[in-house]
Amino acid sequence: MTLTETPSGVRRHGPRVAALLTLTPLLRLAVVRHAVPPESPHRAACDACGTPIRLDRPWPVLGPTARCGGCGTRVGPPPATVELATLAAVAVLVLLGPPVAVLVATAWWLAFAVPLVLVDVAVHRLPDRLTWPAAAGTWLGLGVAALTGPGPGPWLRATAAGLGLAVFFAASTLAFGARGFGLGDAKLAVSVGLLLGWYGWALPVTGLLLALTLSALGALVLLATRRARWTSHLPFGPYLVLGAVGALLLVR
């Protein structure tokens, strides 16, 4: 796209971007609710003052400022984090382009991937209430894409890739325990494998290699800055999502 074409591109995609950004309170609510330690009840109110957090009164706590309307305490991810992540997800969808049915399945996955990344960064867990709907919706969306497009072949391959990637992560958990990947990573891997497997057998491998490479680089940075130790457990979910997005952009 040339510089002269950029304004028209902005006008064409501007309404869609604005519409998708209206979903950010829902995404931020998902992060706030699920960014709690394992076995803890979902967060329904401000930890500091007890002000309820609800979609019928999203501002300011579920807005870009991420501040409680009662006491002003920050709640959930840092200000504008969810909004920037949503913009990045929209950019991925714009770059991928049609076919529409596959795009809808990808949008569904990204809608869950954004809060999953932020929850994993905050509390090192990938809750079932986000991983399983991400996998189920992606699988069904790709099934619709198969019915309206190339037939069952890509969908069956995607299903096999999703299960295969999940088995890989689950096996590492059983083999290495706390030193391996978590079961949450295995559940997230189902939707990642589904989405990448639609495009061929090579892409799930590419996504996994990208995720492992990014994870290694991130760990080295944290070690060099003394923000982590060799024994620290680091979340892998964000790298798995980034690896999947990077692999998707390779097929554009």
TrEMBL record:
GO terms for MF: aspartic-type endopeptidase activity; methyltransferase activity
GO terms under cellular component: plasma membrane
Keyword Ubl conjugation: no
Annotated InterPro entries: Prepilin_IV_endopep_pep (IPR000045), Prepilin_peptidase/N-MTase (IPR050882)
Keywords from the named record: Membrane, Methyltransferase, Transferase, Transmembrane, Transmembrane helix
GO biological-process terms attached to the record: methylation; signal peptide processing
Prepilin type IV endopeptidase peptidase domain mapped to chain residues: 111-219
Gene3D superfamilies in the record: 1.20.120.1220
Keyword Ion transport: no
Pfam family for this entry, one: Peptidase_A24
Transmembrane spans: 84-110, 130-148, 155-178, 198-222, 234-251
Alphabetized PANTHER family for the sequence: PREPILIN LEADER PEPTIDASE_N-METHYLTRANSFERASE-RELATED, TYPE 4 PREPILIN-LIKE PROTEINS LEADER PEPTIDE-PROCESSING ENZYME
Family statement drawn from the similarity comment of this UniProt entry: Belongs to the peptidase A24 family.
Protein name per UniProt: Leader peptidase (Prepilin peptidase) / N-methyltransferase
Originating species: Micromonospora nigra
